[in-house]
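Folds vary. Our protein:
___
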Amino acid sequence: MNPSLPDIAFFHELANAAAKETLPRFRSAEDLAVSTKPKEGFRFDPVTEADRSAERVMRELIGRRYPAHSIMGEEYGTSGEGPYQWVLDPVDGTRPFLCGLPVWGTLIGLQYEGRAVMGMMSQPHTGERFWSDGTRAWASGPHAVAPLVTRKNIALDQAVLHTTSPEPIARHPAICFAALTEKTLMTRYGGECYAMAMLAAGRIDICVEFALQPYDIVALIPVIEQAGGVVTTLEGGRAEQGGAVVATGCPQLHQQVLAVLNGR
């Protein structure tokens, strides 16, 4: 059964509402009420009032427009049930948010029967958005709207590799990340969700993340897939539940990357 999907205009409405909460707090002198929450492998996993308030306003809008839909959010958990589920990360990249670096974003995803079908990453400071409408992927900025297309037919030794932080590498020795760095052109760190958007835009070829939650990846899966890329778990399965996740620009490169990471 093909789902009846919302209009992408509602995703922009959600992103606009979230931006009214996050942007005034970014690089501001306001007390962000920073606290930390438990996260395996990290002694500091920040959450701020920007995270909490942005999720609240998005939940309110979804509840009014789609009261029968379920919502999963990083800050307030899961509510409701049914085949449609919104998956929200109000500030993906709270660490760079606190550091004043504009590589954080608001992630808005929609699943139907457990499969990610639409998504958006909004970066209000740069005025950019990256989204999938259920068929194609798009990017908008201050000057234009254009389709997103991943880079194809790139040799592994010419590929650009990204992971958000080097910290998890030592905690996951079974994932042969060092071997992958030796086989690729260069490795960069610190891009958070913005790096996934740049993969969809054909600027990065491989993104590897070691321990994602569903709200970290659901919104980005359809953006990458509908731009021509591939997103799976390390084992090659669907990535909606998170865990160790690999994204690449094309199927051929993806199989090579999985083989290296799995030590084959």
Remarks:
- The mean pLDDT is 94.
- DSSP finds eight helices and 15 strands in the chain.
